[in-house]
Amino acid sequence: MKGGKNSLYDDLKRQILTMEFDPDQDLDEASLSEQYGLSRTPVREIFRRLEGEGYIDIRANRGARVSPMNHQTLRHFFLVAPMIYAAIGRLAVQNFKPKQLVDLKETQDRFRSASTSGDALAMVLENNRFHEIIGEMSFNAYLQPSLGRLLIDHARIGHTFFRPKNDDMRERLELAVEHHDGFIEAIARHDEDTVVDLVFEHWELSRENMEMFIAPQGMKADALVEVPLASMEKSS
């Protein structure tokens, strides 16, 4: 039973981050119970845990669904993401533990290997874990939940970044890998300013690819992005 619950939790997170489950997709409690050999009660426990982390919504009398991505949520994402990432970066420099830096380096090794082999799903997951570790380094009970929620949508919006379709996108991906190395080096030498500079460089690198993902969905990407990005540029 315990193994089934852990597998369900891990699998749902992975499938949401990699877009195997679409935003707003309903989750079938009965089929998941059967698939993982669980009764309804532990499945609902997992749903509640994932809801608290921002992966799903639970609606009264309508069941669970993958957290949606609509105009409002995306606008909020673009507005606050760089500010949260910068604050997390500064605190990570101040508070990280040596073991966390080792974990960050190992995650970067896996991310680099995935980028070399072109394994897009592994890149999504290892990139997400890389930034999760930086959040853990911050040891801040207020910012970490905000970062976790941002990373869910960052992974979903930016999944096209890890499937480059031309030379420019491939160069951007290579630069993203180099940025990760830069984060590790700057954190190791307690260089807050370099970490923050890298945050904004790293954000700008993936922003255009995020817009490419949003626009085909019929959303007003220009209205969604212009004001938040103007605010970000002023802050940088």
From TrEMBL:
It comes from Rhizobium lusitanum. InterPro entries: GntR_C, TF_FadR/GntR_C, Tscrpt_reg_HTH_GntR, WH-like_DNA-bd_sf, WH_DNA-bd_sf. Keywords: DNA-binding, Transcription, Transcription regulation. Residues 2-69 form the HTH gntR-type domain. SUPFAM superfamilies: GntR ligand-binding domain-like (SSF48008), Winged helix' DNA-binding domain (SSF46785). GO terms for molecular function: DNA binding; DNA-binding transcription factor activity. This is FCD domain-containing protein.
